[in-house]
Amino acid sequence: MPETTGPATWPGVTVLLDPHDDVAVTVGLLERHDPDGGLVVVHPTPAVSGLASAAHDVLAGLGRAVNRLTAERLSGEHRAWRAVEAWLTADEIEHLVVLRADRLLPAVWERLMQACHRSGAGLLLVVHVPVIPAALAAVLAGTGHRTLADPALAHRLLTAGQRPLAPAVDAQPDGVHPRAEDRGRRAPVLIGEGLVSCVAPGFGRGRHQAGQWLAARDQAEPGIAAGIAEVQLLLAGLVQSSVDLDGTQAVLAGARSAFADHGFDLRLPGPVRLPEPGTRSLRGHLYGPGLPRPYDLLDHAAVARIRAGVANPVLAAGIAAALLSQLPTQTLHSLPWQALSQDERTLRLSHFHTASLLQPTPWTNPDRPRYTMVLPVPAPARALFRAARHFSDHGDALPHRMFAATRFSSLALEAAAANCGIRLPDQPDMHEEEFRTLHTAWPARITCTRTASNPHRLAPAPPARARPAMRAVLRAVS
Amino acid sequence: MTTWAAPQEREDHYLGLPGANVVATPALLALRDNLADVLAAKAMMCVHGDAGLGKTLSVNASLRALAPADVCRVQFRARPTPRDIRHVLFEALGVGGCPPTRPIEFDALLKDVLAERFRVLVCDEAQWLSRECFEFWRHLWDDRRTDIAIVFVGGGDCYQVLRREPMLSSRVYVWQEFRRLDREQILSIIPVYHPVWSRADPDDIAQVDAQAGHGNFRAWARITAHGVTALPRMRREHPDREVLQWVLGQLGGAGA
Questions:
Q1: Max alpha carbon distance in chain A (Å)?
Q2: Which residue in A has a C-alpha nearest to residue B172's C-alpha?
Q3: pTM of the full predicted structure?
């Protein structure tokens, strides 16, 4: 087996002999196919051979789309296997079962073992012949593989490692309606200042959850005020699955009430203009989590569509980032890996004025305000970012930009999203003066101030001080 | 190779013989029962036997009665490859657009189409298929989403070819062999097979079968076609010894 860097507790390779090519063995294993439960059964395409084809078969087994492999730059074996390893790792696959393994090439056996070793998945090769072929035996030498002749033992082996199913749908909080079609047009209102009844659906939940969060924070770090990023994360998380303005307002009003109880004056920006029906643009609108939008919400259903419609992890993460941030693709192009937390739970977007980039350049003016929005990444979408990280990190180091590992353009992302049936945020014309940036994202504009008893103000962080070298560049440019 | 969606009953007969009837031979009746079981089980079946014994006609006639809207037939005249089968199925299933270039993409498309509703795939001349081709059929059938039954029809060494493949041995639900009709069957079947023979002397029919028919429907279709030509030409109402001599002469002697 080639050099590997996988986990020490790798379950290893098992070979199941099916000497009579019994239909019960094949169909029985195919019925166990359950990617959500960590068990993937690969049914190789007949009459093709080669490393790239084998990788595409595994991608298909993982549930990824294989109808745009060239467009997604996954037609070559190297990138296709990187995608396989990325998805195996990100989806935490426990067992990879490969049927008709006796018909595969030795190079494919080796690559399968390598991918499974690196991702920590156990590999079950099903050979439909009485004895292990000599070529396979040679590849297996030294791997400590097991050989099973009884399919029942194989089923027991697979059952032992399988994890329980995750809940299939998002639990919708009270008063929050995720369907964009449900919303009606209204006159401009303020997101934070509207009149909200304390008995409105969602108010109680917002107040309760914000109160719990503040109490827990007080207990953990008494006397230390929360950073504005933490407050953004809390509020965005409270309303993330909502696209109904009434529901969002009620939840945020409840949260404001809880903050007031703890001695904080939480202020939210406004007003909100709702987009015209049929429009794809949010230009000039206040936008952010919980507000109506003319495109998809990053929920369970959208993530499932992304998984079924894209095989390239970077494009999958790009679609997720576009839906989550609601920013145009061309803005996301500069998103650095540092924006994503190590556990993929948060995405921190900072807007720098120069050319609307999400990372500073030598020409970034450190004295101009920087807008930052921290968003919670919904649980089902984290695996997409995790897969993109694995795909991008091939040995040496991650590239600086999150989407540098593939061709990442508006057109590429739009085409990938269309294959998933996903509507992306609009792509503004760069020649226009005004287009959507973090200026108009409501979480980036909230403030939180201690009331008179403790006048400590939580506000967007001051601009980072530029390094001397950068200052020199700025002076030269000016 | 060819595909055809729904052959007319007359087209089932060799030479498209006008006036020929589909006769409920014991083999056809058994086939209809077997096909009903195979369709119910969504299984695989193999119908084999020498050429001209009525396998294809019996399968077509039975499926016309059992599942007229669900049948997709493919036939190969030379040794096909899995690529050929993919393209023939693409055409036979009426999938729109251009066929995908990658096998994995092609198979995914075919499986999507075959998952839409139940279909019976009839693969005629299955003796021409290679191991890779059988692997392809198995792949489609084993897939969890596809909703299909597969009927292999083949002459010559079809049985030996399919039996050699363990993947099919464990999957074929029914093996049915078609055999030559014996003398008794010929005497009861041929008079109802075509009006030409309805008033023929049984001894004459038996002699023609011994000399040229050999219990083979395809041979009898040829004999009958010549008989249909001979009767008006020789101003006869029904075939007599003289007519039969002429017919046998047309067939190249055969002891005439």
A1: 82
A2: A23
A3: 0.81
